[in-house]
Amino acid sequence: MSNLKKDSLFAGSVKDAAAGGLVALALFGMMIGMQADVATGLGGQLGINYRWGAVAIAVVIVFAGRLLLNLFVWKSDKPVTRTVGSLLPKASSFSGLGRFATPVFLVLAVVLPFLLTYFLGTRGSRQYLDLAILVTTYVMLGWGLNIVVGLAGLLDLGYVAFYAVGAYSYALLAQYFGFSFWVCLPLAGILAAFWGIILGFPVLRLRGDYLAIVTLAFGEIIRVVLLNWYDFTGGPDGLSNIPRPSFFGLDFERGEGNFADFFGLEYNSIHRIIFLYYVILAMALVTNLVTMRLRKLPIGRAWEALREDEIACRSLGINTTNTKLTAFALGAMFGGFAGSFFATRQGFISPESFTFMESAVILAIVVLGGLGSQIGVVIAAVVMIGGFEFFRGLEEYRMLVFGLLMVVIMVWRPRGLISVRTPSISLSGKAKGISADLVQEGHG
Amino acid sequence: MSTSQPMLDIQNVVTHYGKIVALRGVDMTVNAGEIVTLIGANGAGKSTLMMTICGSPQATSGRILYNGEDITGMPTHEIMRKSIAQSPEGRRIFPRMSVMENLIMGAETANNPDTDESLKRVFDLFPRLKERQNQRGGTLSGGEQQMLAIARALMSRPKLLLLDEPSLGLAPLIVKQIFDAIRDLNQSDGLTVFLVEQNAYHALKLAHRGYVMVNGTITMSGTGKDLLAREDVKAAYLEGGAH
């Protein structure tokens, strides 16, 4: 009996795999098998290279893959995936992660430059410090966007616009008025917040997909304006010679009266990198602190309630207009801060740095980390931005690996890495985290 | 407050959804200390009337007076801060927030800052919510969610409570519990209640006065007892409803 079943299982699987192979043959026969090329033997004419070997390999891969999937996963009584799934850490084991991860991450972030310079020397640590600055910038952007998307539930695909506003605010103010970084930083934040409100007004009535499209368009408008307003922004040439930040008036240059000289150190360009790292780290931590604090205040609860149910919010007397606008403005403000930091670090900005791809990466960090989770954003930023650099050795396969990684994470943890939400208030003072495992995907 | 003036006075209110007329001149009053119910078939305009009181959608003509003040053109959030609270249709609790957070949301815009006292009151009224205070709103049963929706509305210490179909989709025993709680609130606290219901039998039994709405107009009104006894009401709304 069981033998018979096995036979029919095998025959069925082979049949199914053969069908898959045929489809692959039909598809790949053209796509892989015939390559339009400037044929060398034909004196530079356009010709076709036939690559039947490659087609055969592709078809065999499809056939074998489908056969194996049939035998061990889809038709098997004991799918391999279940066995593998039980080997993966349970989703619930991450619940307590946030509590331990936070102090560990914090300490690590603070001592990182010293660890790196100690172990790798000043020369070797430079690229890692640069990467750390980049990751921290994205952490800050992720936290800023988290206010809009994670807390208030307003899907914003044009967040990079505020990043651009911040960067250009600083660069232009420095160029036209000679303001320093520390003067421009708050101004850039205010200007970005102002643009956040400008964007907020027309989209107040929109939700979900419609809101996403309008914010996407807004991001593009800002970029296109920057690109075409040549007299003011330099257009595609960008703005260069953006001044570097000083340490309480001490510049990071060689010579007397500068940072190294003042502290009696030998001049080293790594000083500025370390300084920049601490600046962005402090800015990111301020973003986090403000967000965490706001979450416990009425405005933060109103954001979360707005994400859950707008009509209920209105019936409770919450002014949804103001609630949405504050979320947009605050999120934009932190984007603006990060933008002016970006400008001062790079020393050069152009509209190319503020494409839709940037918005997508920031949004991916927020979603991957778990909407609304602060520590999740950190982990996701490290994985995404760090991973991006880490897989550099794989060259063109990098995007493939990267995409696969994202798919795997989203299948494994559909609500993001950290999907536990801690209530902001409770009577007993020991509110437990509310796991999102009980919620259907895409709801609530 | 003068007794001659009704708490809620709805005068010839017309409401449109785009070009479609939903309310065709509704007149209704709710006096302080009363439970008034509005019954009617699906699509009669009951919920529209309740939402019009709340200012979303706003009435195209007519006036709505609350304690003598014209609230017809006010934005929703301002109306809801005038000691009026609403428990909307379909409960609409915040599913991912805890029971406690849901309740606090209700007190957020209240004039009365004594949240602890309000919490104690709603926990006395619905002890089940106290047990579940740290649970996520979305994990509650339907009946508990309805209790939470009412409790959340009560957190702002309203003078007037608007309830839209609190019995929707609930078992008879739970409906009885909830209606008992409403009666309790009315008798002990003097809370004025305006109740929109499909469950005509229970609603009319509970209410001091009732209105029947058909196609966007009020066709009958009277005390709850009178309406319950009327043959036409029985035929239209109570067949099979009165056990």
Automatic annotation (TrEMBL), chain A:
InterPro entries noted in UniProt: ABC_transp_permease, LivHM_N, LivM-like
Domain of life: Bacteria
Membrane topology reported for the UniProt record: Multi-pass membrane protein
Domain High-affinity branched-chain amino acid transport system permease LivHM N-terminal: 14-111
Keywords: Cell membrane, Membrane, Transmembrane, Transmembrane helix
UniProt subcellular location: Cell membrane
Major subcellular location class: membrane
Transmembrane segments: 20-40, 52-74, 94-119, 131-155, 175-198, 210-230, 270-291, 325-348, 360-385, 397-414
Protein name: High-affinity branched-chain amino acid ABC transporter permease LivM
Organism for this UniProt entry: Roseibium aestuarii
Lineage: Bacteria, Pseudomonadati, Pseudomonadota, Alphaproteobacteria, Hyphomicrobiales
Name of the gene encoding the protein in the UniProt record: livM
